[in-house]
Amino acid sequence: LEMLKADLDEQRELANNRLSELEKLQQEHQDLMKEAEKLKMDLKNLPDNVISETSEYKSLQSQYSVLYNESVQLKQALDEARVLLKTTKNTHLRQIEQMESDELSCQKKLRTEVIQLEDSLAQVRKEYEMLRIEFEQNLAANEQAGPINRELRHLITSLQNHNQQLKGEVARYKRKLREAQAEIQKLKSESTGPSHSGEAQQREAAPPVEQPAVKKEEEVKVKEEDVKKEEPEKKRRWKSRRKM
């Protein structure tokens, strides 16, 4: 019992101590609450000059100034960017319109050139066909006219050879004529008598008689001219027959 009583006393003493501590803490709490309420009231009624003099307010004010200046600069840059964008857009639209106009003009020009080239190509093809037909006709005409041309060349060659032969005969007859005239002159000079001399002078004054060889040469020349004149006529006749 004594031990229990001692424990009880000890517990009561501890309880009293705890109670006194609790009362003390409660009193401190109440005091702190009153002080907090007072500080809240002071904070609500705090003057502006006190707030502006604090370091936090000054730091916030400096930060706000920096941010405001940055916002102003960004706004100016945004306005400049909008103006530049609008100007660039208008310039780009004008360039697009100019490019479209140039493209339309180039297309019209190209279309006109293509039409002209097509017309030129058609004309060239037509001329080519005409030239090809003419070439084929000329080729066929040359192939068919080959024997005629060979015959004409052979005839002209034979006539030229005959002409050379006739010229040789003419030269030989002229030489014989000169020899005969020289012999006659010699005989006349040897004869005597005025009558004979007068007759000799009359015979010398008379024109020489044309020899048959000269006539034959002229006939050959006439024949050659007739052949040359008839050659184009034969060609025209042959072409007309070919066309028919």
Distance between the termini: 172 Å
- H and E string: HHHHH
Shape: rod-shaped
Number of strand elements: 0
Strand content: under 5%
Radius of gyration: 74 Å
Largest sheet: none
Mean pLDDT: 79
Low-pLDDT windows of residues: 193-202, 204-216
Number of continuous helical runs: 5
* Estimated structural class: mainly alpha
Q: Summarize the amount of helix as a percent range.
A: over 70%
Structure in words:
This protein has five helices and no strands. With 244 residues, it is mainly alpha-helical. The chain has helices at residues 2-44, 48-52, 55-190, 194-205, 212-243. It starts with a helix and ends with a helix. Helix 3 (55-190) packs antiparallel against helix 5. The longest helix is centred in the middle third of the chain and has 136 residues, at 55-190.
Please provide a brief summary of the model.
This protein has 244 residues and is mainly α. The chain has helices spanning 2-44, 48-52, 55-190, 194-205, 212-243.
What characteristics describe this protein?
mainly alpha, 0% strand, 244 residues
